[in-house]
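Entry 14. Structure prediction run on the chain below.
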Amino acid sequence: MNILKKITTPLVLTSLLVVMLSGCTKPEGPAEKAGKAVDSAVNKTGQQIEKAGDQIQDKSNR
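Output returned:
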């Protein structure tokens, strides 16, 4: 019984590790893609607002 326990425990732990790691390598789902699109849109909007602010500041300094 002791030998069976010594063999079974590492086998089960290795199997669990493989299952957990395989879950991390799945391709991006729709929520992940949507999140990246939102991040990109917010970043572009922020850049445009900063550019507009710089233009306003330049015109007010004249």
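The two ends are 89 Å apart (CA to CA).
Filed with the rest of this week's runs.
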